[in-house]
Amino acid sequence: MQEILLYSLIFAASLALLAKSSDFFTDAAEKIGLLLGLPAFIIGVTIVAIGTSIPELVSSLVSISEGAPEFVVSNVVGSNITNIFLVIGIASVIGKQPIKITYDLVSVDLPLFVGSAFILALEGADGRFTLGEAILSIIGYVMYLFYTVKGSGEAPETPEEDLPVHVERSKRALIQQLLIITLSSVFIYIGARYTIESIIKLSELLNIGKEIIAVTVVAFGTSLPELAVTINATLKGKAELAVGNVLGSNVFNTFMVMGVPGLVQELPVPPLVQQVSVPTMVAGTILLFFATQDQELTIWEGWLFFILYAWFVGHSFGFL
Q: 28, 177 in Cβ contact below 8 A?
């Protein structure tokens, strides 16, 4: 009982650190976007997405070093499901009005978002993720970044008069915001790392299977940065940043969090992940694709995502 209480306190403290760090990260990311003249969505799919996906990448590399390579694909698929159903669901529900997506998602981002999910499903169909597939995944992410940044060049820059008074387009201001985003990323990682470790320990004390932990609890833990950034961005009226963050994070997870550990060794795909989790991820990806075709996400769509996430967790733990 004392151990459960101890790790519960660690969980609460690390979660608080994670939330506060994400607050600084969101502000700095927006200011960098303003300084560079980029739309909020581009910031979401690049800087914010990569920064909040650091826990997934680090935890995957740690699992390789600890002789548990099956955690990698379980964490990636589970995190992608959590991002779509839980994170997008929360952003849609807590917003005061439907999330308006002004950037042209259909041209590049959504097709690559959907394509990355299908690629991962095909790669794991034989129960393994090989070196060749890891290289192709990394190439896929480079291509995604190239087209995203190229597409951002066609979007209008933020006019000088629309910049906040405290944001000046100067090299010094850019360096300052880059420093803030770097430091906050470090604290995001620290908060997420201790959150994950405390959740895993609590799960072990409660005698929950490791494979189920990886695809649900660990995936939830590594998705906490996305969740914290999304809540902060939505409450500040920057919900578009939250959507871009989820799309970018999922693509990064699929290509880089799978690709980098895959360069170290071949990764197994557990049967539970292959038969249940991957189809759920693909279904969620397609659902989000169709939900955003009218370039907005409503509160009712958010509640639908919540229901699907509840089914996934309940089914994984055998409650349903």
A: yes
